Amino acid sequence: MALKYEILKKVGKSRLGKLHTRHGVVDTPAFMPVGTCGTVKAMMPESVAATGAQILLGNTYHLMLRPGADLVEKMGGLHKFMNWDKPILTDSGGFQVMSLSGLRKLTEEGVTFKSHVDGKKFFLTPEESMKIQHKLDSNITMCLDECTPFPATYEEAKKSMEMSMRWAKRSKEAFVDRDGYGLFGIQQGSVFEDLRQQSADALREIGFDGYAIGGLAVGEGQEEMFKALDYAPGMLPEDKPRYLMGVGRPDDIVGAVLRGVDMFDCVMPTRSGRTAQAFTKYGALNIRNARHKEDDRPLEEGCDCPLCVNYTRAYIHHLQKCNEVLAVMLLTWHNIRYYQRLMQGLRNALANDTLDEYVSEFYKNQAKGDIPEL
Most buried among 64, 119, 162, 344, using CB within 10 Å? Predict the structure, then answer.
């Protein structure tokens, strides 16, 4: 396979590793900021790199609609188009298409859907998804799958999973293998352990450069998600990276790392930056709250992002009240930097045999909360 993955150390189920791609190395556990349309909202690519992010996620669905895969290819690929010289993972477009519900029709061959932008009709198959992601020049291509909704009956989950496995085989056959690029299969099966095992067995048989765990964080709640993660990662090949799609909150990530997951993505840090929510070691806070109005402290003591180094809570509260775009930019930068600091902390703890202490301190601080004691 074209991607190289090294496991440097294991502590329990947790893994410290390196993923080698054509556009650089990704240290794992890793968090990927989401760059839906070829941009991480409110951030320049150079700023995203400054947070410590080593890999971004691009969205096949949105990029195929605007500006179109042919144009991105003509511009030299997504790396050059958006000025990001590090690795890129693109999702298959399946999740967004499935969420269109009334605007799409699903068959064995693929899915027909109408663009939410202009109503134009598209037909997305596993083969077409591979072709589009190839044109985007993403280092990690994802198989086209059906993201099983929650809740789903056993029979619904089984039927959905089995079609996704057939699509995975077609995706593998259509993928153009080349040095420094790879294809990830996606495990499905909802919250049913035997279906997850069947899915993992099918994916192993096909053979991939990495394996994703799909169909979680779709409404089942953290308790159910962790129950599935107690067994799902271990069903996948030990020597390949494991990617939990669409996760999540900081405590979701910590819990998943303890269960053997290596890679994550989520819109939460960027979306929260647009809604006045900031993540800190003491949990999330809403900077719009009146208690920040005259607070001359940084958002988080010890954080090295531009917001925390240069500005006070009172100032960012003021910017939010005035709906200034600078508030969104600074909060987004802080949130992405927080996530990267979290991942670096987990990697350091794995390397130094202090994972238990790090996790204990993480949960202790989260429970303490941000409001100072009187």
Answer: 64
Please tell me the distance from the alpha carbon of residue 159 to that of residue 165, in angstroms, as a whole number: 10
Helix, strand or coil for residue 33? coil
By 3-state DSSP, what share of the chain in percent is helix, strand and coil, each rounded to 5? 45, 20, 40
* Residues annotated as catalytic (active site), given as ranges: 91, 265
Q: Does pTM surpass 0.90?
A: yes
pLDDT at 101: 67
Residue 214, Cβ neighbours under 10 Å: how many?
32
DSSP 342: H
The helix (run of H) or strand (run of E) holding residue 199 is helix 193-206
pLDDT tens-place string over residues 266-324: 999 999 999 999 999 999 999 999 999 999 999 999 999 999 999 999 999 999 999 99
344: which 2 tokens? Answer: 């670096």
The CATH number of 4-266 is 3.20.20.105
